[in-house]
Amino acid sequence: MDKLQAVLTARSPALSARLSAGNTLTVGVGMAGGKGTVYTPHITDDGILSWTNDGGRDNPAPVDIKGPKGDTGPQGPAGPQGPAGKDALADTILNMDIDAIF
């Protein structure tokens, strides 16, 4: 199968090209479109999604994406035994024999 390669360049008006079924090349000429509006999402710690845009357009209404808190789930299995604590004698600041005093 032969390859078809086309390179179209122009500054204005804009050119577009597409290859359709049957290997027909269609070329369109038109005016270049302007830059579109960019919407930027913002989410708060509370789960409120809101939008801003750089085109001076209306933004969608803010929406709570977290929803209500659900029910508490079942208790999970017990974890493994933790490491042993300090030796009780390690923090002793006074040790005396009471029988030797009396």
Can you give the mean pLDDT? Answer: 77
Strands of the biggest beta sheet: in what spatial order?
A: 3-4-5
> How far from one another are the termini?
112 Å
Output the structural class.
mainly beta
Low-confidence stretches: none
Largest sheet: 3 strands, antiparallel
Which outline best applies? Answer: elongated
Helix content: under 10%
| Structure annotation, total helices | 1
Radius of gyration: 37 Å
Count of extended strands: 5
**How would you spell out the order of helices and strands?**
EEEEEH
The fraction of residues in strands falls at: 25-35%
Describe this structure in words.
With 102 residues, the protein is mostly beta strands. 4% of the residues lie in helices and 26% in strands. The protein has one helix spanning 98-101; strands at residues 14-20, 24-30, 39-43, 48-53, 63-64. The strands form two sheets. A three-stranded antiparallel sheet has the order 3-4-5, with no helix packed on it. The chain has a two-stranded antiparallel ribbon with strand order 1-2. The longest helix is centred in the C-terminal third of the chain and has 4 residues, at 98-101. The radius of gyration is 37 Å and the shape is elongated. It starts with 13 loop residues before the first strand and ends with a helix. The mean pLDDT is 77.
